[in-house]
Amino acid sequence: MKTKRNNKDTPTQTIADDGGNPASDLELKQYQDRLRSLAIELAATEARERRQIAEYLHDNIGQSLAVIKLRLEALRVKAQDPAGRKSVEEITTLVSMVIADIRSLTYEVSPPILNELGLGPAIEWLGERLASNLDLNIKVNQHDKVAEIDDAIGAMLFRAVGELVTNVAKHAKAKNVVLNLGITANSLYIEVADDGIGFVHDSAQVIAKGGFGLFSIKERVEFLGGSMVINSVAGKGAKVILEIPKQALKSKRVKKGLK
Question: Which CATH number does the domain housing residue 153 bear?
Fold first, then answer.
């Protein structure tokens, strides 16, 4: 028990000191577990919907456009009028461009390599793609082989890496980016390091200034029980480290987990 005397020296008030409430601690843990489950459920739903959209784009729209292109090419061969043949060629070129756009969009929405080969090869592919599109030198180091993990978590991490590298291209004035992927005793980690201008703000300020993208990554990672840490020195680049505990990766949706 603790006692507290008021300013008028009236009888003291008694304040209980029970050293913590085990029931409240249990409720807090259960609440955190429910949040983590909801985060995984949300990521799973998003991954499933993205895959369905990608499949529809490829199997329906992409295939239909391919048939249209074939028929246009056949029509071009049969066309007698030079002007008509030229028009068909122009339309065929436009259809080819749309097919290329559909294929690119399919990979953006849900890259097949992520579903077929897993997170490690998908990030290597992403590094090559981003290096070409963003004019960066990107090196991917997979220090440990990552076994098959939950599709939803893999998709979330894949998009997180894409968002982080895109931020580097927009703001860091960097030439080189290194992506490190590996496993510790307790977690899977991904590092995105650049040689850009860096910054002097702390992590909270950087995330606040980085818009919804960084905030969303941080929230999703933390809901899974993980962390996002940003280290930087002005003029010496920056490093963002994502860590997801193995316990989260071994949810009921995970097929094989981490070895």
Answer: 3.30.565.10
